[in-house]
Design goal:
By secondary structure, this protein is α+β, with helices and mostly antiparallel strands. The protein has 3 domains: 2-134, RNA polymerase II/Efflux pump adaptor protein, barrel-sandwich hybrid domain (OB fold (Dihydrolipoamide Acetyltransferase, E2P), Beta Barrel); 141-175, no CATH class; 185-404, Chloramphenicol Acetyltransferase (2-Layer Sandwich). It contains 11 helices and 21 strands. A hairpin with a 2-residue loop joins strand 15 and strand 16 (279-281). The longest helix has 22 residues, at 137-158.
Length: 406
């Protein structure tokens, strides 16, 4: 008997998802709770597990297909472990075509029976379809161009000769281009950034902070901190704590606009921007005001690990009352971050740079960082924004305030 594998129930805010890749193919054995397919929404990548131990007998949606909640993805036949060898043998006899190959066959109206598979157990791969198409004289020249462009672009990319935003490079007299569709996540990022620019009155105010006190405190306790909590004491926990102290003093920065109303939040859910393989994501630390420095560091480390391994859940991404982004880890000296709707403010951190400063009437080198606060001027006045940033600066330059609460 076949067991249906369906798209899991998606939150109301997410209408559909795109199939990124199948981890199993027809004829493959799969264990219960083992991932079958990855679905990409506009927020996260979801793994859909197998509900049983069995054999994948049918894949009903190819890669890049758009699917909705409850839609049938695949069929899995339960297998008695004692008869697993016979089941594997049964499926190896049938012709197996990978989803990407099946899609190419359909798009080009090809006869699947004429294509010889080179994969395991005769499986027809995308490369087999391409090779078959090259045998056709009328399509040979077109496919040769596509193959040449792809191979050269891949070669250039591996050598880091092409970077995002750079002009096409002349290689052997040819100007290479390759068109790649946006991922769902990248498209959603673009949509939200435009939404923020169009629907909010965004201004940015700047200040600078002397990081020496935080660095001294960190250097003094980092070894004990690591030994006790099994996590490094970084700078982000200090910035989260300093931001919360400032948000308590200026609640408008922790608020949001809902049509004609201002919603003041009595909690502090802090978003932390993280670079993931799919693009920039902003997972959220819930009730960060109730966390210690160690709990914040552990929470951030967990979110970063999830983001880099595509394991963020919808609940990790939703909500958030204020956000932090650290461009300094990439070398940014100064920037104007864009707020994450419906939030009204975001703090931008930047590279710590030794600069000449006047301290006690003497010029000395100090580790300085520029801070940027982008805010929605519809509900936050300029004076509030400036004082908010000064409050963060004051806490960081005297981190004992975090303990004392002043």
């Amino acid at each position: 008997m076949s067991t249906e594998v369906k798209v899991p129930e998606l939150p109301e805010s997410i209408a559909d998802a795109t199939i990124v890749s199948w981890r199993k193919q027809v004829g493959d054995s799969v264990k219960r709770d083992e991932s079958l397919v990855d679905l990409e929404t506009d927020k996260v990548v979801l793994e859909v597990p197998s509900p049983i131990n069995g054999i994948v007998t049918e894949i009903l949606q190819v890669e890049d297909s758009v699917v909705v909640s409850g839609q049938l993805l695949a069929l899995v036949d339960e297998v008695d472990e004692n008869n697993s060898n016979e089941s594997d043998k049964k499926f190896s006899i049938e012709k197996v075509i990978t989803p990407s190959a099946k899609k190419m066959i359909a798009e080009n109206n090809l006869n699947a029976d004429e294509i010889i598979g080179s994969g395991k157990d005769g499986r027809v791969l995308k490369e087999d379809v391409q090779a078959y198409m090259q045998q056709s004289p009328e399509k040979q020249s077109t496919n040769k161009v596509i193959e040449t462009v792809n191979s050269k672009v891949e070669k250039i990319t591996k050598n880091n000769s092409i970077v995002a935003g750079s002009a096409p490079i002349n290689l052997d007299g040819e100007r290479i281009e390759k068109r790649v569709p946006m991922t769902r996540l990248r498209a959603r990022i673009a949509e939200r950034l435009l939404e923020a620019q169009h629907n909010a009155a965004i201004l940015t105010t700047f200040n600078e902070v002397n990081m020496q006190p935080v660095m001294d405190l960190r250097n003094k306790y980092k070894d004990l901190f690591l030994k006790k909590y099994d996590v490094k004491l970084g700078f982000m926990s200090f910035f989260v704590k300093a931001s919360i102290e400032a948000l308590k003093r200026f609640p408008a920065v922790n608020a949001s606009i809902d049509e004609d109303d201002i919603v003041y939040h009595g909690f502090f859910d802090i978003g932390v921007a993280v670079a993931s393989p799919k693009g920039l994501v902003v997972p959220v630390l819930r009730n960060a005001d109730q966390m210690s420095l160690a709990e914040i560091e552990i929470g951030i480390a967990d979110l970063v690990d999830k983001a880099r391994n595509n394991r963020l859940a919808i609940e990790d991404m939703t909500g958030g009352t204020f956000s932090l982004t650290n461009g300094g880890v990439f070398g940014s000296m100064l920037s104007t971050p864009i707020i994450n709707p419906p939030q009204s403010g975001i703090l931008g951190m930047h590279k710590i740079q030794q600069r000449a400063m006047v301290v006690n009437e003497k010029i000395v080198a100090q580790p300085m960082m520029y801070l940027a606060l982008s805010y929605d001027h519809r509900i936050i006045d300029g004076a509030e924004a400036v004082q908010f940033l000064v409050a963060i600066k004051d806490v960081l330059e005297d981190p004992a305030r975090i303990i004392v609460g002043v």
